[in-house]
Design brief:
Blueprint lengths: L1 E6 L2 E6 L17 E5 L4 E5 L6 E2 L2 E2 L10 E6 L4 H7 L6 E3 L5 E6 L8 H14 L1 H9 L5 E12 L12 H10 L2 E10 L5
Parallel strand pairs: 10-11
Antiparallel strand pairs: 1-2, 3-4, 5-6, 7-9, 7-10, 8-9
Helix pairs in contact: 2-4
Organism: Granulicella rosea
Protein name: DUF4279 domain-containing protein
């Protein structure tokens, strides 16, 4: 389960896996607490409290969430049936009565350029073409998407920029039935981080 929370100009990301660590961007939101009930799939957020727990374990806040992934989900998607029939190994799996899914992290977008993500995604789609086609057609899959992420830094006099996928990436995504999602964050060179 992944959460993205935004309040005024402050935002943070939370990534949750069964039995794993929650990661938040501590530099952006050091005073935010998240509690996750693994059995009931409930997340509670406490903006005032800086202590974060899953059960008895104290969670770390040392890595931001990367949105460089392929994600498949649906209301009637039987994740366990998919896992039993596929050689693909998802990075994330979630099972809920109302919506389940899998995602495959393709890399750490914070360390990769837009063009490196594009090339990596194309290579992954080529190498796993048949398995991704099976996933796209798997009963219950309603949403099938590829995400790329970029943090764009602007100088004081910059007003905008243009980023887009390569033709190769668009062609492979179209063949597989992947919707393209682009996640952008904007900062200025003079921002302290």
């Amino acid at each position: 389960m992944r959460l993205r929370y935004k309040r005024n100009n402050d935002s943070f990301h939370v990534a949750l896996r069964d039995g794993d660590t929650v990661h938040t961007t501590a530099d952006i939101a050091p005073n935010i607490a998240v509690q996750y009930n693994l059995e009931r799939q409930i997340v509670s957020i406490d903006i005032q409290n800086a202590t974060t727990h899953i059960g008895e374990d104290v969670l770390r806040a040392d890595k931001s969430t990367s949105y460089f992934w392929i994600l498949a989900s649906g209301d009637k998607f039987d994740v366990d049936a998919f896992l039993a029939s596929s050689t693909l190994k998802p990075s994330w799996v979630w099972r809920r009565p109302d919506h389940s899914g899998v995602s495959f992290e393709l890399g750490d977008s914070s360390t990769m350029s837009w063009y490196e993500q594009d090339d990596t995604a194309v290579l992954y789609m080529k190498e796993h073409r048949e398995h991704l086609l099976e996933l796209a057609r798997f009963p219950g899959v309603e949403s099938f998407s590829l995400g790329l992420e970029a943090v764009i830094q602007f100088a004081e006099n910059h007003l905008g920029t243009v980023l887009g996928p390569s033709r190769d990436l668009m062609a492979h995504a179209l063949e597989l039935g992947l919707k393209l999602n682009f996640y952008f964050s904007f900062t200025r060179y003079d921002d302290e981080r």
